[in-house]
Design a protein that fits this description.
124 residues, Topoisomerase IA, mainly alpha, 72% helix, single chain
């Protein structure tokens, strides 16, 4: 990742919770890796990914990354594995009904878009 790319990555707006708060000492290094990995996988803009990572869903994603680290993966491998795992899951009927995310959409894509919509709705 170039310095120009890093400069475009939005900073967290939630240092206490979400991915940033959950990863603790790994947060600073993980943030740009997770932002770009998720944006590339979901084809969603970085601002949408930031909303996801700052949310409770971002905390759950961070838990998955920590599981990878505890299993012996390095940070980049753990983030890549979590991204692939979340992209491999599909939104089911109940999640679709609860959150309004279309059934069958990749889980990660669905929640990145959902978090962006929720954040925009709260800003109005």
């Amino acid at each position: 990742m170039t310095t120009t790319q890093q400069a475009k990555i939005p900073a967290t707006q939630n240092e206490s919770w979400g991915l940033f708060g959950t990863l603790g000492e790994h947060a600073e290094a993980a943030w740009p890796i997770a932002m770009t990995a998720i944006s590339d996988a979901t084809y969603q803009p970085l601002d949408s990914v930031r909303a996801f990572l700052d949310s409770r869903h971002g905390r759950h994603f961070a838990d998955d990354v920590l599981n990878g680290l505890h299993a012996g993966a390095n940070l980049q491998e753990a983030i890549h594995a979590a991204t692939q795992r979340w992209m491999g899951w599909s939104i089911g009927r109940l999640t679709s009904k609860q959150h309004g995310i279309p059934k069958g959409l990749p889980y990660l894509t669905g929640f990145v878009i959902h978090c962006e919509i929720v954040e925009e709705a709260l800003a109005d």
